[in-house]
Amino acid sequence: MEMGKILLAMEEYTFTFLAMAVGFLVVAYLYEPYWKVRHIPGPVPLPLIGHLHLLAKHGPDVFPVLAKKHGPVFRFHVGRQPLIIVADAELCKEVGIKKFKSMPNRSLPSPIANSPIHLKGLFATRDSRWSAMRNIIVSVYQPSHLAGLIPAMESCIRRAAAASLGDGGVEVVFSDLALSLATDVIGQAAFGADFGLSGKPAPPSVDGVAAAAEKAAASEFINMHIYSTTSLKMDLSGSLSTIAGTFLPFLQKPLRQALLRIPGSADREITRVNGELRRMMDAIVAARAAEASPAPALAPRVPHKSKDFLSVVLAARESDASTRELLSPDYLSALTYEHLLAGSATTAFTLSSLVYLVANHPEVEEKLLKEIDAFGPRDDDRVPTAEDLQTKFPYLDQVVKESMRFFMVSPLVARETSEKVTIGGYALPKGTWVWMAPGVLAKDPVNFPEPEVFRPERFDPAGDEQRRRHPYAFIPFGIGPRVCIGQKFALQEIKLAVIHLYQRYVFRHSPRMESPLEFQFGIVLNFKHGVKLQVIKRRKDC
Ligand code: HEM
After folding, report:
1. Which residues pair with residue 406 across a beta bridge?
2. 174 near 533, Cβ under 8 Å?
3. What is the Cα–Cα distance from 160 to 150, expressed in whole angstroms?
4. What pLDDT sits at residue 307?
5. pLDDT for 295
6. Which run of H or of E encompasses 505?
7. Which of left, alpha, beta for 424 (phi over 0: left; psi -120 to 50: alpha)?
């Protein structure tokens, strides 16, 4: 009888012990990453969500506030995962350049970790694979080669402006136009393919039905592209498995597999769209690899004399067996898609920001128009050369920089420690997620007095403000060996577009434009409701 009681009690306790052990393991799992960096200052995280509620409420504006309160190195928890945010120019130099060897890779937040198409590009690959791939690609972005891309860029810009802006007097969602334009430019310059998204006139031989089909295919492509880009969300509005991955990373994969079977789930839709885009990319790559004719319907081949991104990587593949192994079909199509993604959303956002900001700063517009008009008569078809862009448009250069500072497209730049390292006096163990905060630097009054004022002159190289500023206080393209590979490509395209547009038009905010602006915080920043503008054709005398 006694024995029976003891066994019963043990049974009861066993259950309690088991429940406690499981509870302990769950708590240990949730707190393990925090424990290792608990010595770094930061706000108190909420259980499970960490500080995501702050991000959902304030967007990236939360980081300057936290930096002010906690100092230039602080903790920010994305669900279970602590990020160590570095918000000081000198410390960013330490992370990105001086101690690069200890932090050569990017940590991958759940939206990317969840997205197979993004995992094999340059952005996500690591260590020697990354450096081998980057060394192959980097030659495409050398200045001498970029100069040869000017005619292709200019023809896309000309076509987009003619098709969407015409004689003015219209209202446009400029951010959509900019995305179509930037995607077309990447298509031509990187793949030698004409997507025709920003207003390709139908060739005379094409009948009405075929032209309509081509237009529908182009519009579906851009919709899928927008969907894929904006589905990479950093807050709590992503797919269910992405959200789960933020809290409990081990759940992400199995949950995703389960959700893929449920019709209508966001996971299934994202996977379908990414699969579709990848098939399109694969078709372009296969056509180019075989130099087959005809090319896929969506992307007729453009005769190109200069080497483009695809020809360089395809040629490299043929050079030796190890490169062929490195650039296997999976990596090749991921790199191709990455170029489309990285090269279009960012550039489009920057161009849209610039036009939006200039539209309500008449003094900036006047100076910009003066500089552009001084280049030559408006009706003249003279296109700036690479040298013209460098020497004849100093004010445009300042306007581009100030627009990028004002609305920073990548307010955070990720790294992960691959060994123990000290930053700003704090020891960080291997595996720590260290994220630099160019967005905080850009709004720091120490580097940019009156940071909420749009004033391009602050980037005047002869000005005091520019001379006093820390050389790494303005890093919209990142920093160090992993700096944006397409930086010069993007700046060339943006400058050509601004010159072409302002030679012919000026812009005003549409009454439908919301105020204040709302942003979507995805893997890059985006305008939530687009940039809606009225287009005014410039008269010859003004
Ligand atoms: C205004 C336009 C752009 C902005 C603001 C921008 C910004 C950035 C930033 C902040 C990074 C991270 C750098 C770092 O970690 O230090 C990056 C990386 C990258 N960008 Fe851009 N980017 C732009 C345009 C482009 C274009 C046009 C391309 C390609 C044609 C491109 C391709 C890439 C790639 C492949 C990486 C990863 C580089 C690596 O890990 O080696 N970007 N970009």
Report:
1. none
2. yes
3. 15
4. 67
5. 43
6. strand 505-509
7. left
**Are 478 and 484 in contact, with CB atoms under 8 Å apart?**
yes
287 CA to middle of ligand 1, Å? 27
The residues pairing with 413 across neighbouring beta strands, listed in sequence order, are 436
Which residue positions in the chain have pLDDT lower than 50? 202-210, 292-298, 302-305
Residues 100-135: tens digit of each pLDDT: 999 999 998 766 676 667 788 899 999 999 999 999
> Looking at ligand 1, which atom is closest to the CA of residue 413?
15
Q: How far apart are CA 503 and CA 134, in angstroms?
A: 37
pLDDT digits (tens, 9 = 90+) for 331-382: 888 888 888 888 888 999 999 999 999 999 999 999 999 999 999 877 667 8
> How many Å apart are CA 299 and CA 334, to the nearest integer?
18
Structure tokens at 478: 């990142």
Question: How far apart are the C-alpha atoms of 158 and 348, rounded to whole Å?
Answer: 16
CA 80 to ligand 1 center in whole angstroms? 27
Q: Are 418 and 410 in contact, with CB atoms under 8 Å apart? A: no
CB neighbourhood size of 504 (10 A): 17
CB under 8 Å to 84, separation ≥6 — which residues?
A: 37, 40, 73, 74, 75, 423, 426, 428, 432, 433, 434, 435
Q: Would you state the structure tokens that stand for residue 110, as one six-digit string?
A: 């759940």
Question: pTM of the predicted model, to two decimals?
Answer: 0.88
Structure tokens, 87: 């918000």
What's the confidence (pLDDT) of residue 338?
A: 85
* 92 has binding-site annotation: no
Centroid of ligand 1 to alpha carbon of 67 (angstroms): 25
Atom nearest to 190 CA in ligand 1: 30
CB distance 123 to ligand 1 below 6 Å: yes
Binding site membership of 112 for ligand 1 (Cβ less than 6 Å): no
